[in-house]
Amino acid sequence: MTDENSTRRPTNRDRPKKTMADISHTPPYEAPDANRVFERGGELLTDERRP
């Protein structure tokens, strides 16, 4: 509920609440390079840096 003349910034209270079931996401096993990123501690190796 915002008014175009209001100076108040929207907050999280203004957004509808979502549960994890409502949020669509890609399962980790379907994401490209997911296992490699996990095994390397979050560092994605490019083609040039792969061993």
TrEMBL record:
Protein name: Uncharacterized protein
Superkingdom, natural source: Archaea
Organism in which the protein naturally occurs: Haladaptatus paucihalophilus DX253
Pfam families found in the cross-reference section: DUF7989
Record InterPro entries: DUF7989 (IPR058742)
Listed Basic and acidic residues bias regions: 1-20, 36-51
UniProt-annotated stretches for the region Disordered: 1-51
